[in-house]
Amino acid sequence: MKDAVADAFRGLVDRENVVVEFGNSRLPGGAIALSEQVVMPVDTAKRLVLVLEDALRKYAPQALSAEAAQRAVTPVNAPPDAAGEKAALLQKLVADLGVPFQHERSFRVSPGALHANRFLLSLDAADIVGSPMEKVLEICARFGIPEASRKAAEESFGTAACVHFGFEETAGSLLCKLYLERQVPAGEAADAAAHRAPVLLHLAFKWDPASGAQVVTRYNWYPSLPMVELESRLASVYRSRASEASIDIARAVLRSAAARAPAEQLQYLEVEEENGRHSFDLNVYNAALLLKDIQEPLIAMRERFAVRPGQFQALYDQVKTRSLGHLAGGVHRNGEDFFNVYYGVSGFPRFNERLR
For residue 327, which of 266, 275, 277 has the smallest C-alpha distance? Predict the structure, then answer.
């Protein structure tokens, strides 16, 4: 990039683009000499405005002096991204198994935070040559799975038709996950639906490789719930009036999905942990929605949790044309509301056959 100084500008709209022209007004008679022209799509211009507003709010009240700016030190080389290296390693180890697997991304929205370095890698246990349990747990061992979680996973591995490896970076820490998914027999699912009772679908082992903290999570499926009961169960997940805005967001996504597919074809799970987490997971792949189809609930989500507009818009513009997978939300183990938005699996199968 080259240095340029301008003391005048104007904005124009040229077909589908926004044009910003910069110039110098020091010519005789007040004429302006055009020095630079920046042409950008409307979406890019929107992001630019939001990012500039963020910057002004953050720095304008305490702008650095020229002397302080000169003293600032910029590193020649950025330090290695430890989370990125770990994420790449997990994907390589799963790919090295030599079997088909699916990749599903997600982002988490919580008070004042947006975390987008999250994904699931999903595969059929039967596709793994040799001992599936040994190979899966070898990968988990590379990421420091605690001994108690490893033993518990060994004891339950025989029930797993599908295996999901999860990775999440949040506030400078990493969380690794192993999900064991059952293939629920049709008779068991039908009996659960008739009695409006839950059936265990996923058993998940989650741990922090750095601290050794670990938790076991149970995902209970309520098969074939009608719309009225789905809305009722969603609301019951939240136990505080302060969460009313989150309930409205979850209902809005549910109604968008139910407008495309019968409510009974949407997979609804509730999540149990001993540490107090109380949440839901609503799989809406059968509704064939795109993220842009729930733009209004997503904006409400950003406002609800006071996420910086520019940061959210930049992510949204990248993923808005991807398929919406499922929405998770509720009260996390730290007592705060949250939402996880999963997206982007292509060629996905119907739920409880291959993909979580």
Answer: 266
Whether the predicted pLDDT of 68 surpasses 70:
no
- DSSP letters for 128-152: SSS-HHHHHHHHHHHTT--HHHHHH
Terminal CA-to-CA distance of the chain, rounded, Å? 46
Give DSSP secondary structure letters for 83-117.
HHHHHHHHHHHHHTT-S--EEEEEEEEETTEEEEE
CA dist 128 to 49, 256, 270, Å? 49, 38, 29
**Beta strand residue intervals within the chain, DSSP E:** 8-14, 17-24, 33-41, 102-110, 113-124, 162-170, 173-181, 199-207, 214-222, 267-272, 278-283, 324-331, 337-343
d(CA 125, CA 356) in angstroms, rounded, equals 14
Contact between 232 and 204 under an 8 Å Cβ cutoff? The reply is: no
pLDDT in tens, 15-54: 567 878 777 766 555 556 667 778 888 777 777 877 777 7
pTM over 0.90? The answer is no
Q: 42 CB contacts (<8 Å, ≥6 apart)?
A: 16, 17, 18
Query: Do 303 and 69 meet the contact criterion of CB atoms below 8 Å apart?
Result: no
Sort residue 29 into left (φ over 0), alpha (ψ -120 to 50) or beta.
left
CB 124 within 8 A of CB 162: yes
| Residue 30: per-residue pLDDT | 54
pLDDT digits (tens, 9 = 90+) for 85-139: 899 999 999 999 999 999 999 999 999 999 999 999 999 999 999 999 999 999 9
**In sequence order, what are the beta bridge partners of 152?**
none
16 φ, ψ (degrees, to nearest 5): -100, 10
